Amino acid sequence: MTTGVAPRAESSDPPTFAVSVVVAAGDAESLGRTLDSLLAQTMTQWRAVAAVSDASSAAATVVERYAARDARIEPGLPSSLPWSLALHAGDVLHPTMLERARDAFAADAALDAVHCAWTITDERSRVLAERSCDATGDLFDLFARRAAFPTSVCVVRRAVLEAAGGFLPSDDGVAEWMLWQRVARRGARFGRVAETLVDRPPPMRRTASDVIASLDAGLRVIALGHGIDREVGLETDQPYYAGRLASADAAVFALVCRTAGELLGVDEDAALLVDRLSPRQLDDAVDAAREIMGCAALAARRTRAEWGELWVELRPRLERFLAAVQVRLQRPGLARAMIAEIQRVVLPYLPSELPHAVAGSHIVRVEVTQAIGDIELPPDAVRLQLLVVLEGTTLGALELAVAGGRVSSSAIKQAIADAHAWRILGRFFERTLGDESGGEQHAIGRGTLADQLWERDPPVVARAMRIIDRIASAIRGDDDGRRRGMPRPRIVEAGGRVPWLTFGARNVAAQLRVAGEPVASTEIVVGKAGVLTASALRAAVVDAAGDALAHVVVRDLLLGAPFQRGVTLRGLIRSGNERGAAP
């Protein structure tokens, strides 16, 4: 009896990496796109087999034409190359897909499979969804619960694949899910490439009966993952012989919700699915709500920009489904919570005229550059959903709990700053300084923020301080300064003057404050040179503050006022200090 993962071939080094690609043939046009993407690969050591059932079909003609162009493409049986990849006609690989997989295997010889992120793109080249699986290592627990990724985004060792039964292509992906579950059950180790390297077409439109049949097949895969799968051939002492030991209830709930989304997206009644649930089954209602909307949008071929109009269309049927789920699961309040979460997800895509909020929630549009005050809410509101807008650009949606029929301005500002600080800072610099960098964290960064909080040092002074810092670092070595006594306290005010040089043998315990509010503290080692420069002191407190510095600056200095050219963070800090000092 075969047990465990099949032995690894000595084939993970880049020079010997070679992939056998199996393409499940579809229509001629889709098959041609897939084969074109293979021919464009920067990693050339592959062979492709197109599985054509009818030798007289248009797809067979396409295969013959491509085989004449390149000997690596042929009809027939898969080759015996050490790595495998299975594609469906219409899947398009980015040119570096195989190369990036090769590099991942070369970096970690213990890996048996490597997967990447993917998009789902329609015939008009519109991106309907962006998908990825962040998990690596042992993925059996994941595959016991759900299909984590399709076969077309994962390169796997051929020996490992064949030991688990080989590729089982299917239109609904259930057979592929079962295959990956078996590969993982046998102990395969998975790696990940973070980039999006595959474009996939949307799934075929299916009838309600086909969707329900797929759901029932998926439920059987979940049951298989939570029990003994004799087809795998594990010994009783193998780790996953008995399957996943936790309850399958949450996985069943999640799959039913995903299937409901697909039915809702094609104008079908999803309430008929609730009989697949038992009263004890419930997963994370928040995640399930998001999955319903994502699956509905994909089935309806809607982009995120169209989620708002889709929400209006499917809301009555969605409410009926969730009401039936609430009754079936005997969970009062579940339907209200889930539909409110879906409302929050689609809120950034709703039209300017906001619709009537679902029961228990209240929607408010907040413009970042206008005054932000307390919000009084209706008596039945238990949650406030904010549509956050920056000079007409939607940043996203937030949800805050309601206490005593109101939400304070301080709570609103804190939530906005926590979620969108770097984008708001980027727009502020763009408006006030003429910076065209755009406003993402990677564009402005902490260095830019620090430069705007303090006056720039004169060039001569800056060069001198860099030289002093290098000398002090070389002299310090591994000395931590603790033997010279307790650190000296030092308050560093954002925007305030910092002496160019601080002398003394003891370390400095520095605290950064913004408009008088403490943000971060850190101990700075002075070292044997006994000197600390202003640039080193500022850099240390900014590093210690991390993202908290951006959050405090946005919350206390920027929110609630227009961004005007000539305004600086230093000026805003001085104004705040003056107001605080006024009688």
Short description:
With 583 residues, this protein is α/β, with parallel strands linked by helices. The protein is 41% helix and 18% strand. The protein is globular.
Key descriptive features of the protein:
single chain, alpha/beta, Spore Coat Polysaccharide Biosynthesis Protein SpsA, Chain A, 9-stranded mixed β-sheet, 3-stranded mixed β-sheet, 19 strands
Mean pLDDT: 87
**Helical/strand content category:** alpha/beta
Q: Label the overall shape.
A: globular
Low-confidence parts? 6-15, 435-443
Report, as a whole number of angstroms, the end-to-end distance.
86 Å
Describe the structure.
The chain is of the alpha/beta class and 583 residues long. It has three domains: 14-204, Spore Coat Polysaccharide Biosynthesis Protein SpsA, Chain A (Alpha-Beta Complex); 247-356; 447-581, no CATH class. The chain contains 17 helices and 19 strands. The protein has helices spanning 28-39, 58-69, 97-107, 140-145, 158-163, 174-185, 208-225, 249-265, 285-299, 307-329, 334-346, 409-433, 441-453, 459-476, 534-545, 547-558, 569-581, and strands at 19-24, 46-51, 73-75, 83-88, 92-93, 113-121, 127-131, 154-157, 190-200, 361-367, 375-376, 383-390, 393-401, 406-407, 488-493, 501-503, 508-514, 517-524, 531-533. Strands 1, 2, 3, 4, 5, 6, 7, 8 and 9 form a nine-stranded mixed sheet that branches. Strands 10-12-13 form a three-stranded mixed sheet, sandwiched between helices. Strands 15-17-18 form a three-stranded mixed sheet, covered by helices on one side. Strand 12 (383-390) and strand 13 (393-401) form a beta hairpin. Helix 6 packs parallel to helix 7 (208-225). The radius of gyration is 29 Å and the shape is globular.
